[in-house]
Amino acid sequence: MKEFLALIVVVIVTGVIYWGVEPFAHGQMYPKVAPADYTFSDLKPLEAQEGNAANGKEIVVANCVACHSIKAEGMEMPFSPEDALAAYGVVPPDLSSAGLIYDKNFLGNAIKNIATATKQTHKFSGNHPMPAYDWMSDQEIADVVAYLQSIAPKEMTNKEVFIDACGRCHDMKYDKWSANGGLKTYLETKVPDLSMMIRSRNLEYLHTFVNDPQKRLAGTAMPRVGLTEQAENQVIAYMESVGDSKKAERESLGWKLVVFMVFMGIVAYLWKRKIWRDAH
């Protein structure tokens, strides 16, 4: 009887810690924030008709390829990465996949004013390496977005999305990826390697942080990236494949271990009773 009462006490204490204390402590460390907003509703939609891709290409050629490459269209940067670093402090990204991985509303606003769209006005006050194109009409910006969407690949691997969306700042050393492009130096902050980030943060935290870093870490230098929900899921899936590659195997063994422990507990209890019964 005493053993049974002790078991009940252990179960109650464990339950209080697991379902009470731990969630409370987690809530104090990571307060609840608004869920991820994949429509970027704080950004004003463009007041324009459906974009014209042909006209958008002309605008891109006249304004964007002076800095950016678009390798999908055979357009290379007009200068070397070393010269770009010397001139701008960063290497401008290739735009081949921008129309696929970035939300349409975010992309239009990023062209209009990158610091506002990425929530970096606290860090860049008129000195962002990419100039604002708010002098363009909304229709012209919509045309550019339509062009970028028309040349974007139909699909990308998880790693390809990660490299284009995150790989200019973050290393993934467990998969032999090192960030390049000068952004780590330009942002003047330590940028973490993401190889094991999937283990140190839960999925809710990662989704809300990638969607809008300011929700979780106000004042951070990390920009809001503006990924679509699909692209963000692919980024996190890639992080999981690198940092937690045994997750499926581990979860499949979990219930088997619980059954084994319960079975061995019953055996141990019956064995103990037999020993003490024989002893008396």
UniProtKB/TrEMBL annotation:
Cytochrome c domain: residues covered: 51-152, 153-243
Domain of life: Bacteria
Pfam assignment, any one: Cytochrom_C
Signal peptide residues on this chain, from the entry's feature table: none
Alphabetized UniProt keyword annotations: Electron transport, Heme, Iron, Membrane, Metal-binding, Transmembrane, Transmembrane helix, Transport
Family annotation (PROSITE patterns): CYTC (PS51007)
A GO term for molecular function: metal ion binding
Transmembrane segments: 253-271
Name of the protein in question: Ubiquinol cytochrome c oxidoreductase, cytochrome c1
